[in-house]
Design brief:
Elements: E1 2-4, E2 23-25, E3 28-30, E4 37-41, E5 48-53, H1 57-76, H2 79-95, H3 97-108, H4 112-133, E6 139-142, E7 149-156, E8 159-163, H5 171-183, E9 187-190, H6 196-209, E10 216-218, H7 224-233, E11 237-243, H8 246-257, E12 262-266, E13 271-275, H9 281-293, E14 303-309, H10 310-325, E15 328-330, H11 345-360, E16 364-367, E17 382-385, E18 402-408, H12 411-418, E19 426-430, H13 434-443, E20 448-451, E21 470-471, H14 478-481, E22 484-491
The protein binds NADP nicotinamide-adenine-dinucleotide phosphate (NAP).
Length: 493
């Protein structure tokens, strides 16, 4: 493992101070009603690189006011016009991809190559939803009784509160903003406290692309509970779209129930990755590296448990350990980095605790497994074998570069283990027998299955989970409908 901690140089091409002018409300940079600031740190160096305002309840309600003031105009804007503005957002993000990637890398710590991938993915939500904006089609049919016609129109749902996590600071926001705007809604976004700079940089970009003032508002706060509760209690707000942990999602669902607000939830995961004896070894290793190490394991879709059948087990373990050992661990902004730091010291402590727990229950460490000393929130790529079913990491999200591998014998056994979790977001299956792959895909309780590949996310596909991994879908043709209400008119001609 090559561990180096690179410091940000004065001449880096990102002026991160320019991304923290204030809250973004009604198309303007606005000071918060108090003087409090939220420091933003670079996880590679632990140095504070910027500060953003700490919005109060009053500021949040001002953002809802701005979204309300812009609502009618945006709703009445022709779908073609909305589509063209969204397309322009895609183009501007693509033109500025390198700067945005550097900014994501700075505040989140992820390797530049992952940040570049995120910008392309995030921008694609604008291109995809620019295409969706002009294709929100209704229905018109004869009632079965023959007495009347049934007309169904998909109307914008109303003002949306969007809450996003730190692990994909651009993509989790655009995956909500683009379909909301395509549907004709106005929004207030509250990004994660650790990674607000990307959200603000993008807010300025949307304005430049022609998004009218007030259609997208962005506020940062250290009091997410009271601020969100106040917005959800406002009768003008009709939609909550949340991406984050299952624990916070449960609380927000309870909060949204008070005013019966439509809620979409993209929550935690505990993805199994299953390798059958007949899998192509290279494909399985390649897939496992992507499924485990994209974003250094800080992904809701990250392979959290690797189940490998006996006949291929030894070869798989040896090859994966070799690849994990060879990864370059360094500051995300280092172009050579393949594994950046974790988001916070707390995240590293959690990984460390989970590894120690697994080892105390009999797991063996083949590489990594030890929290390093020094500056930055780093954790080394780690492979564990013989991880027992009662290890805490078999039930909790590791959210880091740790691959726990367990041997299995039969299909029934591995399906039962894969489903032994409250989560159901993603799963990975490797086999050359496609019929078996599809059968196992049907048996696994997850919203998304990757068959012989390590990546499921695609703006053109419905992303989301079952069980306690969430409610609703983002992307595909489903994503935009989450921001609409069907209006039914019974028509007698
Ligand atoms: P988190 O702690 O749940 O935070 C997510 C967002 O919710 C942040 O903006 C956070 O603000 C806010 N928040 C926290 N407490 C809140 C409250 N009481 N009321 C309103 N908002 C509140 O999750 P995270 O640690 O940022 O993200 C990691 C989690 O997200 C993992 O569980 C991961 O699996 C999940 N995730 C899921 C998906 C998916 O698509 N299913 C995608 C990415 C991530 P603060 O930053 O101020 O705390």
């Amino acid at each position: 493992m090559n561990m180096m901690h690179q410091h940000i140089e004065e001449d880096d091409d990102v002026d991160f101070h320019s991304f923290s002018h204030g809250l973004f409300i009604g198309g303007k940079w606005v000071e918060a009603s108090n003087a409090r600031q939220i420091p933003v740190a670079d996880p590679s160096t632990e140095a504070v690189i910027a500060a953003v305002p700490d919005a109060s309840v009053e500021d949040a309600l001002a953002a809802v006011d701005a979204a309300a003031a812009a609502a009618e105009g945006w709703r009445q804007t022709a779908p073609r016009k909305r589509s063209e503005i969204l397309r322009r957002c895609f183009e501007l993000m693509t033109e500025r991809a390198e700067t945005l990637a550097m900014l994501i890398s700075l505040e989140n710590g992820k390797a530049l190559r992952d940040a570049r991938g995120e910008v392309a993915y995030a921008a694609e939500f604008f291109r995809w939803n620019a295409e969706e904006a002009v294709r929100i089609v209704g229905d018109y049919s004869m009632a079965p009784a023959g007495a009347n016609r049934i007309l169904v129109d998909y109307e914008p749902i109303g003002i949306c509160v969007l809450i996003t996590p730190w692990n994909f600071p651009a993509a989790m926001a655009t995956r909500k903003i683009a379909p909301a705007l395509a549907a004709g809604c106005t929004v207030v976004l509250k990004p994660a406290t650790e990674t607000p700079l990307t959200a603000y940089a993008l807010a300025a970009l949307y304005k430049e692309a022609g998004v009218p003032d007030g259609v997208v508002n962005v506020i940062t706060t250290k009091s997410p509970g009271p601020v969100t509760s106040a917005m959800l209690a406002d009768p003008r707000v009709r939609k909550l779209s949340f991406t984050g942990s299952t624990g916070v999602g449960r609380n927000l669902l309870a909060e949204a129930s008070k005013t019966v607000i439509s809620s979409s939830m993209e929550l935690g995961g505990n993805a199994p990755l299953i390798v059958f004896d007949d899998a192509d070894l290279d494909t399985a290793i390649e897939g496992a590296m992507v499924a485990k190490m994209r974003n250094a394991g800080e992904a809701c879709t990250a392979a959290n448990r690797l189940y490998v059948q006996s006949g291929i087990y030894d070869r798989f373990v040896a090859a994966l350990t070799e690849r994990m050992k060879g990864l370059v661990v360094s500051a995300g902004t280092d172009p050579a980095s393949e594994c950046g730091p974790m988001i916070t010291a707390k995240a590293v402590d959690k990984i460390d605790r989970l590894v120690e727990d697994a080892v105390s229950r009999g797991a063996k460490v083949l590489c990594g497994g030890k929290k390093p000393d020094g500056v930055g929130f780093f954790y080394p790529p780690t492979v564990l074998v013989d991880v027992p079913a009662d290890a805490e990491m078999a039930h909790e999200e590791i959210f880091g570069p740790v691959a726990p591998i367990t041997r299995f014998e039969t299909e029934d056994e591995v399906v039962a283990r894969a489903n032994d979790t409250e989560y159901g977001l993603a799963a990975y299956v490797f086999t050359k027998d496609i019929a078996r792959g599809l059968k196992v895909s049907r048996r696994i309780e997850a919203g998304m299955i990757a068959l012989n590949r390590g990546l499921v996310s695609d703006p053109a596909a419905p992303f989301g989970g079952v069980k306690q991994s969430g409610l609703g879908r983002e992307g595909g043709s489903h994503g935009v409908l989450e921001f609409t209400e069907p209006k039914y008119v019974a028509v007698t001609l």
